[in-house]
């Protein structure tokens, strides 16, 4: 990436070198064409046999004269954060002397994984390939040359000495005014790239059965499958059990009908599995095992090539997820995860496609509300569903809009998780509504709603005692 404004430091160092050598370098003019190797830039002003020594002296003077006054370019922190948010690596590939480039990185506290210096033009391609880069951001036509040599996407910014016309003529793929535009571009680029990968993956499968809970992820997956394969080669399966809230059933049927997809509603019996009822830390494994053991024969009987689940990239990074492993053992395919699509990207794409589920709150199964170690029963599941419906109604009566809400069953008592902005000001009528649903007492979690919070009890079982 092009990260710093090197002009002030370059001028200061060149002037210091010129003073020592008695050479009047046109520093301002030379700084307008930064990019080529230093020795090449100084060649018109020095005897040939003095160039190498002058270059060495410039690099020796550089830390003192160039590093302290050199600022980061506008948008650098946000650009680096955009890459980090997608779990990407950041490699600085530069024509600068590597130790001096590292000094800039350290001085400005830039979040960079590796620095590759003293490479120019097509030679940058070698470094990009070695680090597995997929995008190279630069400001010079020779940065474009490096990207082309590596076969990676070339993104150019107009904060260097090259014009848009020069960069486009060199073959850059994208031109941005500066790095402040990078996060938005990067987000769109990744989303488009991942949607294309999803479409290709679904197309290769040929025909699919989608495990369709009605939530935002599985709804998006169902819509994507229809786009890639057509409704005649897609079947939705919504498993009915005590763990699926009644309120989720009709909206799921309506959504699938809107896509022209046939819906199966097989019954699953998680409560017949001892490991599920016992509700230890591996409960989700038994739930997913039951689901796949029911859906796989249905898919085979309908001549469908694969059973798909809506597991996304965030789910796989969330740590302890035994359900994902159990589904994989039974051959479930996870196209959203395989394409790298995150929850945020799924919501963005869903909105782009006009899906009503784009902003639907997270809706994990009811058993996820019951603390590990407490036996799961139909009565407990019904009590949680009743309490959550009552809490939402009480918030609405108080004139408050809540997006995410969970009532966690801790045994006799409950813990309420809501959007963090509301966590410190839950009205009394909401707490009364939860208690009236069948709990002896209710507390509000000050940390607010977060997916998978029950896993915290596995790490610290005394936390909510």
Automatic annotation (TrEMBL):
Keywords: Hydrolase. The keyword Protease does not apply. Gene3D superfamilies: HAD superfamily/HAD-like, HUPs, Putative phosphatase, domain 2. GO terms for molecular function: hydrolase activity. It holds the Pfam family Hydrolase_like. It comes from the Bacteria. InterPro entries: HAD-like_sf, HAD_sf, Ni-pincer_cofactor_biosynth, PGP-like_dom2, Rossmann-like_a/b/a_fold. The keyword Lipid biosynthesis does not apply. PANTHER family: EXSB FAMILY PROTEIN, NAD_GMP SYNTHASE DOMAIN-CONTAINING PROTEIN. This is Hydrolase. It comes from Nocardioides marmoriginsengisoli. The lineage of its organism: Bacteria, Bacillati, Actinomycetota, Actinomycetes, Propionibacteriales.
């Amino acid at each position: 990436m092009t990260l710093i404004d090197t002009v002030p430091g370059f001028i200061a160092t060149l002037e210091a070198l010129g003073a020592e050598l008695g050479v009047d370098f046109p520093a301002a003019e030379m700084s307008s064409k930064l990019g080529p190797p230093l020795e090449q830039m100084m060649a018109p002003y020095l005897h040939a046999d003095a160039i190498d020594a002058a270059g060495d002296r410039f690099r020796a003077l550089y830390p003192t004269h160039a590093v302290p006054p050199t600022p980061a370019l506008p948008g650098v922190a946000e650009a680096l954060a955009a890459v980090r948010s997608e779990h990407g690596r950041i490699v600085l590939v530069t024509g600068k002397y590597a130790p001096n480039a590292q000094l800039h990185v350290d001085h400005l506290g830039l979040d960079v994984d590796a620095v590759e210096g003293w490479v120019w033009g097509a030679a940058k391609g070698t470094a990009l390939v070695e680090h597995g880069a997929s995008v190279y951001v630069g400001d010079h036509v020779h940065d474009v040359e490096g990207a082309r040599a590596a076969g990676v996407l070339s993104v150019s910014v107009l904060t260097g000495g090259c014009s848009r016309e020069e960069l486009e003529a060199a073959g850059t793929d994208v031109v941005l005014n500066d790095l402040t535009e990078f996060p938005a571009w990067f987000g769109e680029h990744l989303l488009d790239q991942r949607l294309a990968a999803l479409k290709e993956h679904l197309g290769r499968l040929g025909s699919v059965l989608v495990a369709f809970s009605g939530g935002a992820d599985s709804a998006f997956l169902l819509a994507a499958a229809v786009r890639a394969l057509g409704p005649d080669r897609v079947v939705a399966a919504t498993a009915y059990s005590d763990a699926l809230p009644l309120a989720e059933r009709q909206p799921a049927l309506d959504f699938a009908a809107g896509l022209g997809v046939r819906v199966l509603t097989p019954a699953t019996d998680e409560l017949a599995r001892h490991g599920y009822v016992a509700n230890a830390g591996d409960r989700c494994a038994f739930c997913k095992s039951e689901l796949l053991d029911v859906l796989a024969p249905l898919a085979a009987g309908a001549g469908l090539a694969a059973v798909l689940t809506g597991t996304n990239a965030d789910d796989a990074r969330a740590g302890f997820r035994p359900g994902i492993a159990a589904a994989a053992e039974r051959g479930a395919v996870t196209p959203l995860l395989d394409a790298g699509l995150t929850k945020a990207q799924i919501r963005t794409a869903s909105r782009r496609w006009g899906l009503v589920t784009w902003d639907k709150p997270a809706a994990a199964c009811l058993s996820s509300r019951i603390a590990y170690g407490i036996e799961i029963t139909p009565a407990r599941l019904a009590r949680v569903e009743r309490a959550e419906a009552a809490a939402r109604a009480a918030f609405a009566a108080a004139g408050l809009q809540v997006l995410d809400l969970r009532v966690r069953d801790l045994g006799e008592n409950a813990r309420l998780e809501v959007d963090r902005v509301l966590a410190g000001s839950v009205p009394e009528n909401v707490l009364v509504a939860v208690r009236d649903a069948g709990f002896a007492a209710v507390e509000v979690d000050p940390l607010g709603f977060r997916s998978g919070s029950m896993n915290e009890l596995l790490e610290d079982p005394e936390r909510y005692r």
